[in-house]
Design brief:
Elements (H helix, E strand, L loop, with lengths): L5 E8 L11 E8 L2 E5 L2 E5 L4 E4 L5 E4 L4 E8 L16 H14 L2 H15 L14 H10 L7 H7 L4 H12 L3 H18 L4 H7 L5 H11 L10
Length: 234
């Protein structure tokens, strides 16, 4: 909107400075870490890819125990009023990362156009249909099995699907009926059974599937209730 005052920046959050309010919209998009917010007495968490629109006059406080980084837009554009209860679409995170880079490297044109691009990416114009990103579960499953030997977080799975952790968790529960970590645990156990059936020693199977010891893998298989053709002595 012509005449709107807008400032784009990357901010680092830590200890709480105390509650305050602004006379403009403040748009937050999580880049790293988790930011705990309290807005008008209601709690909210902003992780990677999550976002929130704080409207003028709303008292808010924030804190991040381990530190958090957000792309922040301070704006007087009234078009943000219609998005105060919405969440950003998946394509907003790649844009936010690009704009964060522009802020740090001084790309003036990107910073100038950034607020309008962010508004457009956050939600389509009125009347436009929101397109839900399709998750290629088969491809994600192949990647997760290949990476099974190391630690893996919901954020890493979500990034592969180009979603925020919150969006990925909701889609996983809706489409598969499982939490992301329960889905991942099932993949690792199925992979362990497959490797064991090929004759690999239990210690090697445990290493490839991300378990700290053969006995830990055996215990996980027993809890899972499936066949456990494992002898930790071999």
């Amino acid at each position: 909107m012509a005449g709107a005052h807008e400032t784009l920046s990357v901010r680092h959050y830590g200890a709480s400075p105390g509650s305050h309010a602004h006379d403009h919209f403040q748009i937050l998009l999580g880049l790293e870490g988790v930011l705990e917010l309290e807005v008008d007495g209601r709690g909210r968490r902003i992780g990677q890819g999550d976002g929130m629109v704080i409207t003028p006059g709303q008292r808010h406080d924030f804190e991040s125990v381990a530190g958090a980084q957000c792309l922040v837009l301070d704006s007087s554009d009234p078009d943000w009023a219609r998005l105060d209860r919405s969440v950003p679409l998946p394509q907003t995170l790649p844009l936010a990362r690009y704009l964060a880079s522009a802020c740090s490297t001084g790309l003036a044109r990107a910073r100038l156009m950034g607020p309008a691009l962010l508004l457009e990416a956050w939600a389509p114009p009125a009347g436009a249909k929101r397109v839900r990103r399709t998750i290629d579960w088969a491809t994600l499953q192949v990647w997760a099995r290949q990476a099974a030997g190391g630690p893996m977080s919901v954020a890493e799975l979500a990034a592969r699907a180009h979603l925020s952790p919150a969006q990925f968790t909701e889609r996983c529960r809706r489409e598969l009926g499982l939490s992301p970590m329960a889905w991942l645990r099932g993949l690792r156990l199925d992979h362990a059974r497959h490797l064991r059936a090929q004759g690999l020693p239990v210690a090697e199977v445990a290493r490839r599937c991300g378990y700290r010891s053969p006995s830990a893998l055996t215990a996980a298989l027993r809890r899972d209730g499936g066949p456990t053709p494992l002898n930790i002595d071999d």
